[in-house]
User: Fold this.
Amino acid sequence: MATKSIWGTEVRDSSAYLRGILALYKVGTVVEDDHFKKDILEVFQNHPYKTALPPCEVVVTHNPQYGKQSKCFGIIDSTKEIILFSIQNVAVKPFNLSAEINKILRDFVSHDVSQKKESLIKQYGLFCMKGKAPCDRSNLTLNHDHPYEFNKIVETFLRSNCIEVDKNLLEISVNQQLVFKDLNILDKFRAYHKTFLDDGYASLMSKSNNSKLGTSYRFKSKLIEKPNFNSAHAWQKSQLSLFDGVADGI
Assistant:
């Protein structure tokens, strides 16, 4: 985990500073303070793939993904688009393409995972199958059992379909998220992943046991210093990035 920020300070201190700025402004307010604006733009600059066209304004807004109670920063560029980003981008760390692909695939099959969890609860009750003890529903999670942990399923799927882990697999969606260019990959993976759920390579496990167990299989991370993804935003397809040094953060 990254511990240093783009300013050479501890990430927790820099994050607290940015949260403090968020607390000063109401949602929908443009940040006019020059010092704050400069610092926030530097955090945006550290994002691995989001770009904006000058001139830019910094605004405090909310991320629809997390509800109206959430607050985050956004950049309003010359196209009047609001580009959201997280204060977590203040951390100095390379962009992990393997982890991003893993996340996209995991999110896509999350409904199947939830259904399998409910199916096992109906069959076994609220019970941690590893600890062999009763467990609250809120503390139960679905575990992908060894030797078919989720990471292993992802890697074998990619290999069997001759899909190379490469930045050309992805692009930026209109919602400013990384997505597969070929959406058929998602449907193929869902069918592949479901065979492991249906064949019994999953169990109910308490979140604490799941955290302690971790995974015995880790695929090799693919770290990229300066990824340059194609964008589904028409205004980004042929434009230069406002920030040439985008390197770290997610």
